[in-house]
Specification:
By secondary structure, the protein is mainly beta. 9% of the residues lie in helices and 30% in strands. Strand 25 and strand 26 form a beta hairpin. The protein is elongated and about 65 Å long.
Length: 417
């Protein structure tokens, strides 16, 4: 028995590098209370305690392995993947302090539930390799204060503090796919105002926070105050408006992943590609198209899931979007997410023009801070993969793809420092 136990212990040892995972195309400060590790076992993080291999032959066939478990002796929170493929998990701990691998208390953020209940929250966004136990963090529970008498009560108490969303990792199969139509920047041109506005891109293509799976991969996030006017990126017809006025969900809990306000537009402009040059049809001049700005946002339609594309691939998509062979024209749908409730200026079926105000930005749904999330798709299917797009500004010739950490506006595009 002792020999078998020793062998099992040896099998469970899972070596992984101590190199720290670094944010890619994502501003870490834009996600207070969120902790990310998407590259285990090749990279580690400041919170991840460790991981062990799961071997099915060590368990009886009728034993149910929980997807979320708690070690009552150490209060270690563990996620389990018994599949032969990787999983992506978003798990939130509400109202409890969380400790990282060295015992340091991890930064917490805030969240608001659907009915408006506020609480502190710590959220972990992780990739769980195939057949792996992933030890995420340790929880601080005051047993005496909470009146907890045994392990069963402890487990029940902790589970009530958790929200989670677990999905199969599904990366984008065509990360270099870009639509040739250039869109108006999402925000109005404030050139003639006293203080000209610039907007920080907090997450770009392939951003290592939430832009890692096929339904969000090419999305762009811009930090902006609640109530900021958002404009249409192109001429089109409104195909969907989602306005959950009674839903107060915001913040970083996994329970907010499927609560958001948004607007979708089917673009009616067309483009021709001649000798590698894009010729737009049924569109106004570049100056008119960019004078007001435009906004779009990616749908949180399938939550946060999956990292399966390398940073090098994502970087190539950002720096050389035209290198893709898939850059054909065709249908284009643009979507704006985290919209302020009851701020919509248009409704389904309305015709909109470039630069027209369509709504105001907000913080609905999974939203660590107020921001606009923009995405584009080739179809309106709820499981459609994203497609990349470039934006145009009124006083610059070249279209651009926003990158995290840089400031942009409708007049000059990127602000050079």
């Amino acid at each position: 028995m002792e020999r078998k136990a020793a062998i099992m212990s040896q099998r469970r040892k899972h070596k992984y590098r101590n190199d720290m995972e670094k944010p890619f195309n994502f501003c870490r400060e834009a996600a207070k209370g969120c902790h990310v590790c998407l590259m285990a076992p090749n990279r580690t993080s400041d919170f991840l305690i460790g991981l062990e291999k799961f071997y099915a032959d060590e368990y009886d066939s009728d034993v149910e392995i929980p997807s979320v478990a708690l070690d009552p002796d150490t209060n270690t929170l563990t996620l389990t993947n018994t599949h032969d493929y990787a999983l992506s998990a978003t798990i939130s701990v509400k109202g409890l302090r969380c400790l990282g691998k060295d015992g340091t208390e991890l930064e917490a953020g805030n969240t608001v539930s659907k009915d408006g209940c506020k609480s502190t929250c710590t959220t972990f966004i992780v990739k769980i390799p195939a057949n792996t136990f992933l030890h995420v963090c340790r929880l601080v529970v005051d047993l005496e204060r909470e009146g907890i008498k045994d392990r069963d009560e402890l487990l029940e108490f902790v589970m009530q503090k958790l929200d989670s969303d677990v999905q199969r990792c599904e990366g984008h199969s065509r990360p270099n796919d870009f639509h040739p139509l250039h869109l108006t920047f999402p925000f109005q041109n404030t050139k003639h105002e006293k203080d000209e506005c610039f907007y920080l891109c907090t997450q770009g293509i392939g951003g290592s926070f939430t832009h890692t799976f096929y339904g969000n991969y090419h999305a762009i996030d811009f930090r902006c105050e609640v109530g900021t006017p958002i404009v249409a990126g192109a001429n089109g017809i409104v195909t969907n408006v989602r306005n959950n006025a009674q839903d107060q969900s915001t913040g970083i809990s996994a329970s907010n992943l499927y609560s958001w306000n948004s607007i979708q537009i089917r673009v009616t402009e067309e483009v021709n590609i001649k000798d590698g040059e894009v010729e737009e049809i049924n569109a106004d001049s570049a100056e008119q198209r960019s004078s007001s700005g435009a906004s779009t946002t990616a749908s949180a339609r399938t939550g946060i899931a999956g990292l399966s594309i390398s940073e090098a691939t994502a970087a190539a998509a950002v720096s050389s979007p035209s290198s893709s062979k898939v850059g054909q024209a065709g249908p284009l749908y643009i979507e704006y997410v985290h919209v302020q409730e009851n701020s919509f200026k248009v409704q389904v079926g309305d015709v909109v023009e470039r630069g027209q105000i369509i709504c105001r930005s907000g913080e609905s749904g999974f939203c660590p801070e107020p921001h606009l999330h923009f995405s584009a798709f080739r179809t309106s299917d709820s499981k459609a993969p994203t497609v990349g797009v470039k934006f145009i500004a009124s006083e610059v010739k070249d279209a651009f793809v926003p990158e995290a950490g840089k400031m942009y506006n409708a007049r000059i595009g990127e602000r050079k420092i």
